[in-house]
Design brief:
This protein is 30% helix and 27% strand. Helix 1 crosses helix 3. It has five helices and nine strands, in the order E-E-H-H-H-E-E-E-H-E-H-E-E-E. The strands form two sheets. Strands 5-4-3-2-1-9 form a six-stranded antiparallel sheet, with helices on both faces. The chain has a three-stranded antiparallel sheet with strand order 6-8-7, covered by helices on one side. The protein is α+β, with helices and mostly antiparallel strands.
Length: 182
């Protein structure tokens, strides 16, 4: 499958490349990034497995994660996309595409996550035969909760996942389409 490229005013969402491992490993290895995502930095081999899993999603499901980069400079900013991680949370969550995003510290707080998520959801609205997507967020991660809410997500349940409290969100209607496919 050819992974689409999505461009917004500031961002380009594109397929992962072998050369992205160093940037991804630096981001996922930063405790500021992972404190609300698993609670610990990831090792280089764990990050490599993530990248392979992202590519596998595209191959098997027709959707997955993109690298988020600055459109003008090509600088790595993070990752965003859709997945089915088979979390086993329950029928209200499992089976729906799950939106997710993670940004390098230098990209946080500048609206990059909201722009990337809206672009990914715009693509999903146009290309997936589904009307509902979900996401899972640590309740202490106020920044990500705000991003989800700006993108049309509403809380529908609180539970625990891997012994950590999480808030489950859902989005059932098409949101603003900021991205365009290339």
């Amino acid at each position: 499958m050819i992974i689409p490229i999505i461009e917004t005013e500031r961002l380009r969402l594109r397929a992962h490349r072998l050369t992205d491992l160093a940037d991804c490993a630096a981001m996922w290895g930063d405790p500021r990034v992972t404190r609300h995502i698993g609670g610990r930095p990831f090792t280089r081999d764990e990050v490599w497995a993530k990248i392979l899993r992202y590519v596998g999603h595209w191959s098997l499901l027709g959707y997955g994660y993109w690298v988020v980069e600055d459109r003008a400079s090509g600088s790595f900013l993070g990752e965003a996309g859709l997945a089915d991680f088979k979390r086993g949370i329950g029928p209200g969550f499992d089976g729906a595409p799950e939106i997710g995003w993670v940004l390098a510290p230098a990209a946080q707080g500048a609206g990059v996550a909201t722009e990337a998520v809206r672009a990914a959801l715009g693509w999903a609205d146009r290309h997936l035969n589904r009307t509902r997507t979900v996401c899972l967020i640590d309740p202490e991660n106020r920044g990500s909760v705000r991003v989800a809410e700006k993108c049309g997500y509403r809380e529908f349940h609180r539970t625990t996942y891997k012994d950590h409290p999480v808030v489950l969100f859902e989005r059932e209607e098409a949101g603003e389409e900021l991205g365009r496919d290339s």
